[in-house]
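FAQ: What does a multi-protein file look like?

Like this. Sequence, then tokens, then the next protein.
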Amino acid sequence: MAADPAPKPPVAPQKAHTSLWHGETVNDPWFWLREKANPEVVAYLNAENTYTEAMTKDLQPFSEALYKEMLGRIKQTDLSVPVRRGVFYYYARTEEGKQYPIQCRRKAGKDGVYDEKAAEEVLLDQNELAKGLKFLGLGGMSVSDDDRTLLYSTDATGFRQYKLFTKDLVSGKVSSPLAERVTSFTWAADSRHLFFVTEDDVTKRSNQLWRLDLKGGKPELIYEEKDELYRIGVGRTKDRKFLLMESQSTDTWETRYLAASKPTGAFKVLLPREKGHKYDVEHREGTFYIRTNKGAKNFRVVTAPVATPDPKHWKTFIPHRADVLIEGLEPFRDFLVVAEKHEGLDRFRIQDVKTGAWKDVAFPERVYAAFPGGTPEYTAKAFRFAYQSMITPQSIYDCDMASGKQTLLKETEVLGGYDRSQYATERLWATARDGAKVPLSVVYKKGVKLDGSAPLFLYAYGSYGFGMSATFSIPRLSLLDRGMVYVIAHIRGGNEMGEAWHDDGMLMKKMNTFTDFIDAADHLVKEKWTSKDRLVIEGGSAGGLLMGAVTNLRPDLFKAVHSAVPFVDVMNTMMDASLPLTVGEYLEWGNPNEKAAFDYMRAYSPYDNLAKKAYPAILVTTSFNDSQVMYWEPAKYVAKLRTLKTDANPLLLKIKMDPAGHGGASGRYDALKDKAFETAWLLQQVGITK
């Protein structure tokens, strides 16, 4: 009996489409895949899914086994550490079998301590909100100062279009949508007025600030950001005294402020925008604390009176240091906490305001991640933070700010007998071709042979100044337990080594991002952490651009690639100012309307540099409703690559046609199933199938 013939990949028809770029006529025969409402487009995408399903049919048992294994390590019914805000403690809990968390609160007990016997009040059950929906994203939630009204936003499509609602916490009544396309919001101190920001319906740029009086008023537009390079957001200072509206472009920031007790007043500009000046602000006891990069590449902190915040009245509070990036400042009544980054590692310093003395928060491991954990109370005596490493599950601590004593409140439980002593994590340094030292965070199971035979998973991002932290992952244990080494490459374009690290991986230095990744991979092969035929790589969004660029530059170096929601059609996207987010991106990637920037970007754009040669095995994943990187970028990339690749390696496109977003599925079980499939596919490429 003849074997079933191998499935044939879909062929996307080619249709002539020309653009005139700097006097050159460029034909893009797959441009038509942008026509989202075209049944032919939908049919092609469905055909790609059918092909992927057929090509991975043998993978399903392994994928399902990995899903059960990953799920078996997760405590499905769990509770977050309650956090105090005023007279209530707030927390989220999960229940086995339910996709989403349930947001709750309890009244504080005697002396303000948490009382688990106090009646639970459910603020939002996201599972109830999600009934009948394929997707539910919670944009945010905030309780009014009088504790009586909840403000929250939800997205039901994955396109990050959030509707704003209120819920009366006494009666339980939920309002009809107050506004659509809401990106940030906050309460005024009177619990009656609220402020929210909406985005442009075409470009998705957050550009309008509105004020709403809940006692019968209509939304009132109070600010519109006209400059397409900027987007805005609204919030409040730590002490709740001021409302802040921030306008930010990639390289220039501006803040407006208004007393939270005077919501009908007018916002005032703190410091007028000045090209290249980035600053943000906090408030404590009549003083503004301004984090500024004026004369300070990695930021410094200055203080100024609220009445006169201009530079003439600045006093240096924390001076600039070339090797330390100041990431933020959190003021309390009696203390100040500063978050910093040094050599790719997070750290906190605490000042006692009365004595002026500083103390460092100590961490036990050499490679780790630590983040402020949200301490809402301005009068708090303890600073909450989250600590983890690649072998230590996320742990929530309270640090007594007077003594420095740390109290572990909760460590995420890993079921099934996880023993961190069986794993090792370390920091390596790869030397880039121009001499820059690139940090690598590594984790592996002890006993793995480091003779070049081990499979290795290399991950990176490298854009927008977003540094990647050495965090813990429960699903990653399924890789480590099968002998795979996992590495994060902290390449230029992030901020792990300070602001200059970002500068050296953007605009006309963007190629450093890609060559850093290649040099890191070469280093890992040379030092026998792995070999070329055992090396798999992954990146998403701008990290998907990275995947496309390095695969074009060095296809021989990688065995398999997972490219998630990849920004690969750089030229078409950046030449189209009507697309979401494009114009604001000019300051990160360059303005291709300028010939020098156009030529530079075109030299690395993955879609434009696909060539007739052998490529590694490639899995591309995306969502039809992705609002950040449109589905057609990965779809066009796969369609074009099919016509060029000379190898027999798999090239698969997996696209969620149901509502889903840039981050994939919204439900925790659905998201874990996707992770299990992607993990199974990458493991299969290096011969691991169980």
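And here is the next protein:
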Amino acid sequence: MMRFLKGLLITFGILFIALVVGGIVGLRFLSEQWEEEPLPDRFVLSLSLKPGLDETSEPFPFAAYIGGPSPSLLDVINLLRTAGEDERVQGLFLDLSAASVGPAEAQELRAALSRFRASGRFVHAYADSLEGNGGIALYHLATGAETISLQPSGLLDIRGIELTTPYLGEALESLKINADFRARHEYKGAMTPLTDDAMPAPVRENYRRLVDSLYAGIAADIATARRLSPSSVNALIDTAPLTAAEAKSNGLIDETRYRDEAADAARAKVQGAELVGAARYLRDDLDFINGEDTARIAVIAVEGPIVRGRAEPFSRSRQAAAENIADAIEQAREDKRVKAIILRVNSPGGSYTASDTILHALSKARADGLPVVVSMSDVAASGGYFVALDADHVVAHPTTITGSIGVVSGKVDFSGFLAEHGIRADSVSAGRNAGMFSPARPFSYNEGRRLDEVLDAIYADFTGKVAAARRLGPAEIDAAARGRVWSGEDAKRIGLVDVLGGYAEAEGLSRDAAGIAPGKPTELVAYPTDRDSLKDFLGALEAGELSEAAMRLEALLTILRYSDVLVTMLGGTGGDRINATAPPLTVR
């Protein structure tokens, strides 16, 4: 029976792979037989931003055959630059109805719109409604357009900026659950929601400064773009959410229109022009923009929590897996077309070891003569800041949340809760600290002291490397660190950041560091680059990777075969779980 099941599963697996590959090759063949009509001589580009822009598009299996994933932030930046150099493109109709961006992403896109407009083209921004907690960031982006339209029934929800955190300390205490986390130092607030029943005073002070800095920059940009006084903008924000009519009467938007009306108005700016979608535009032959004489700058994203090892294949969750990023850096190092690296960081940190793995790979690239410029997006905190320590230059947006130079680790101890309910956890172990991170008991005195020693060592290493990289004295690094978070504006003031800006500034610094001639064009290319997935698949066959998968399937079937025996053995021990590994030490 088991042999039959094994053969059946393997047969179905082979048939499934054959169908997928055959279907993809067939679609590719059909697509090559179909030719789209050429684009008109003059047209208005139409772009609808989708929620949750990734920093870069990750290589996706068979992307070359099925069109790839949704456009990334870098894709949009490159699109606007290309369109700004294309004589056929007269303007842009930007639909923000479904968009969702962070404050720094909004600044990045807003700057790209400004460059596009500086090329002599217009931008019309539209949304059916700008509402929700991200409304002010979206409106900040919209103010980069010369005309803003809102659906008559829509809202302009620019209520300001708030950092809200539920504090569970009192609730956990009532349940006899002890969250034992140790931080370096008082401003490191990552785990205070579990340990405290209210925002600690140092954390509140730090967050107050951060929110005020973010708010001031955004409000000032809005006032300048809409030709309003700062006091009137502040008053309107305090009145929000605003109806579309109120937003228009107060000068925050230009027109109340439905989407078709807004699109018609954009098209009417250029007599007889068509509206051409971004996807169709990118399918056109754009080789006139970047030819063989182009210098390539690799863009490598550190996006999401920083973790050790490699990312799970086919996973859609964004994690900055250290080995994947190190591989991308290595690929850029080996590519003779690459003249510099822009490390694009949008991460709250994570594993200190993983962050150090990324930093080491960047150090090797710089040692080989490849300049590295770090460009920070919405967040570059803790490990997300640590990876920037061996860069030629560090660039951040004014609204980037950065710093958090500190460390925290610990565990949640459920022993009191378990005892309250008559539950006793029992174990045997070898090694004095084997159960150090067990949630079934508190830290012993020696375990707690050892954890404190480890955290002290990590904090000293972190701050020492920041001080050396940023040329800060003992008093300066102490004032910048201790777990504080900063806006990009404040981070530049205290020496943690070199330049305020985004991709344009990072590209300029990369050109200078690499010695690229002023007249030579450059292109920003995400690494790792897309590979031909069909060739990769055939390569996997040759390398025996599929046979390895079949071996794993056979191992699974073996476990199934002996599952009854395993259950009987575990039942005889009086339990159903044996944990023979110590939980990892995770620091943030």
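Q: Is there any per-entry metadata?
A: Some entries carry free-text notes. For the entry above: The radius of gyration is 27 Å.
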